[in-house]
Amino acid sequence: MKRKLLLISLISLLTALVLSACAGNVESTPEENSDMEQESDSMEEGMDHSSMDDDAMADGHMSHDEVVSLNDSTGENELKIPPLLESDNEEEVVYTVRAQEGETEIFDGTKTKTYGYNGSFLGPVLQFEKGDTVKIRTINELDEETTFHWHGLEVSGEEDGGPHNSLKPGEEELIEFEVTQEASTLWFHPHPEGKTSEQVYNGLAGLIYIEDDNSKSLGLPNEYGKNDIPLIFQDKTFDNQKQLNYSAAMNDDGTIGDMSLVNGTLNPKLTVDKEKVRLRLLNGSNARNYTFKLNTGDSFVQVATDGGFLNKPVTLDEITLTPSERAEIIIDFSQLNSEDEFALINEEDGSILLPFEVSDQSGEDSSIPEEMNDFSITEEEMNLPVTKNVELFGMMDMVTINGKKFDPERIDFTQEQGVTEVWEIYNKPDMMGGMIHPFHIHGAQFKIISRNGEEPPENERGWKDSISIEPDETVKIAVKFQHKGVYMFHCHILEHEDNGMMGQVKVE
To answer: Model's pTM, two decimal places?
Structure first.
């Protein structure tokens, strides 16, 4: 019945548009006619699409207005901390990273089939320093093709790990690059065409830490695993055998789960001392948005964005991250009421993500300096004309960029190496209102010039590689590529990416 009502609504809308045009009430420009034809084609395609079923309509998933809530963490398991990967030799920074299949005991007494890097689930943390020459030997030990994408890292197109850099089962490749960007928290994950969402869902994700002289001098909490904590947030759906059955859970509009995992830990808790604790947050989910908040309403301080430190710390009550976005925040547990029970919650649904157990021990006396960086948007950058227009549109498998789906043989944009250009990204609403699209560009960190003509909020005035864009919102960003090659730009709802919401820019 719901499908019939939708079809009637679609047909009625199309009929109204045609009658309006025939009556001469609206004189359409060629561009408007083109837009109308694209929407009509998309709607007709959608009418025949089997996955636009009653369940998807009933739970509001296509707009993400009413997504399934996450189960609360019971706090019964201490949070797993990813290991720091050691270099293959002491003289150089040389890592070996293997994509592997395995089994993981996510639930007590049950083995779940998973993917991981150098292990069965998720991956280790890779550590770089600015100025390092890094070599990474990548090995595909899966039974399917994969790639190794270094999300947020400024490397050449050949080393970026996009869909053109696929490794077949058993293949390996050695990449080499110099680290030229500032201290930041990045990550790595697969990026094979049409299969990214499933491989990430099954467990392929890991973090990258870059340090530099500035980061070492700031005095921020930096004891890994104690007061400097990596946090990979993901949501999953497990079947009745406690397996990750992606084909059953998959939704074209973004796969959402009801079970929350942090660093692959089910029902986690984090034990901390009475000190400042630095949390490096990654939204590593396929599609879910998180609004992180303390259950007590206490504030915290954000010190870094995707690609580096903010100039000054920003005090917040909550922070929203869409898929692939990162933020570094600091919570001062020495200043909180020790009688309260603390937890990091998701304001989106009120779920408890990570309870904290505060010990009686006093920790390190770290600081949060008032000045952390010298990030700026120059007057010249502010006054540059828009040279790239990007229109995000659609839902389910009807998603497009500038009215087109991804074609690996098509170059959508060209840009000169080392030259800053302004891109304008518009999230065009669809007939159901639209949804947030997290927009990501490979191989570059960019600056946000404006949101709907207004200066971005204080906590976004830093380097970014992914940005959340609301329906009917227009964002301008200043983009400069340090290296040559072909790079992807796309929606980071992974199912949208796999469904073709992706384009290519060639940097020459």
So the answer is: 0.88
Eight-state DSSP code of residue 22: H
With a CB cutoff of 8 Å and minimum separation 6, the contacts of 250 are 197, 198, 495
pLDDT at 345: 98
| Residue pair 300/336 in contact by the 8 Å Cβ criterion | no
Q: Which of 323, 322, 317 is nearest to 345 (CA)?
A: 317
Distance, in Å, from the CA atom of 423 to the CA atom of 505, rounded to the nearest integer, reads: 12
Comparing C-alpha atoms, which of 283, 259, 254, 281 is closest to residue 270?
A: 281
Cα–Cα distance for residue pair 480/449, rounded to 1 Å: 13
pLDDT score recorded for residue 65: 56
- Count of CA atoms in the C-beta half-sphere (13 A) of 167: 26
Q: Which tokens sit at 449?
A: 């010039």
Q: Residue 434 is which amino acid?
A: G
Write the pLDDT tens digit of every residue in 399-441: 999 999 999 999 999 999 999 999 999 999 988 899 999 999 9
State the Cα–Cα distance between residues 326 and 463, nearest whole angstrom: 11
Q: How far is CA 354 from CA 73, 79, 218, 237, 424, in A?
A: 6, 9, 27, 18, 37
What would the DSSP string read from start to end of 63-118?
TTSSPPPPPPP---EEPP-PPBPPPSSSSSEEEEEEEEEEEEEEETTEEEEEEEES
Give the pLDDT confidence of 164-201 residue by residue, as tens digits. 999 999 999 999 999 999 999 999 999 999 999 999 99
Amino acid (one-letter) located at 98: R
**What would the pLDDT profile of 61-94 be if each residue is shown by its tens digit?**
344 456 899 999 999 999 999 999 999 998 899 9
Give the angle 425-208-173 at the CA atoms, nearest 5°. Answer: 95
Query: Which segments of the chain have a pLDDT < 70?
Result: 1-66, 338
Rounded-to-integer distance, Cα 245 and Cα 311, Å? 44
Strand order in the sheet with 342-346: 77-78, 268-274, 351-362, 342-346, 290-294, 318-321
